[in-house]
Amino acid sequence: MESFEMFGVCLLFLSLLSMSSTLEMITPTQPLKDGANENVTLVSTNGTFEAGFFSPANSGSRYLGIWYKTISPRTVVWVANKETPLQDHSGVLELDRDQGILSIKSGTGAKIWSSNASHTRSKPVAVELLESGNMVVKDGHNNFLWQSFDYPDDTLLPGMKLGMNLKTGHYRALRSWKSLNDPTPGEFSFGVDTRGLPQLVITKDSNDNIVFRPGSWNGVRVTGVPGQRTHPLTKSLFVMNEDEIYYEIQLLNSSTKLRSRLVPQGLQMRLIWSDESKIWDTPYTGSFDECERYGMCGANTICNVSGANQHCECLSGFRSNVADSTCERIIPLDCNKGDSFKKYEGMKLPDTSSSWYDKRMSLEECQKLCLSNCSCTAYAQLDMSANGSGCLQWFNDIVDFRILAQDGQDFYLRITASKLQDHAFNSKIGGIILGCTVFIIAIVVFGSILCLKRNKLKQTDLIQFQVAETNYWKDKNKKDDIDLPIFDFLYISNATNNFSESNKLGQGGFGPVYKGILPDGQEIAVKRLSKTSGQGLDEFKNEVLLIAKLQHRNLVKLLGCSIHQDERLLIYEFMPNRSLDYFIFDSTRSTSIDWAKRFEIIDGIARGLLYLHQDSRLNIIHRDLKTSNVLLDSNMKPKISDFGIARTFNQDQDEANTNKVMGTYGYMPPEYAVHGSFSVKSDVFSFGVIVLEIITGRKNRGFRDPHNELNLLGHAWRLWIEKRPMELMGESMDTGDDPSEILRYIHIGLLCVQYRPEDRSNMSSVVLVLNSEKLLPEPSQPGFYPGRNNLTTMTDSSSRNLDAYSLNEMSETLLEAR
Question: Among the options 624, 642, 683, 803, which is catalytic?
Answer without folding.
Answer: 624
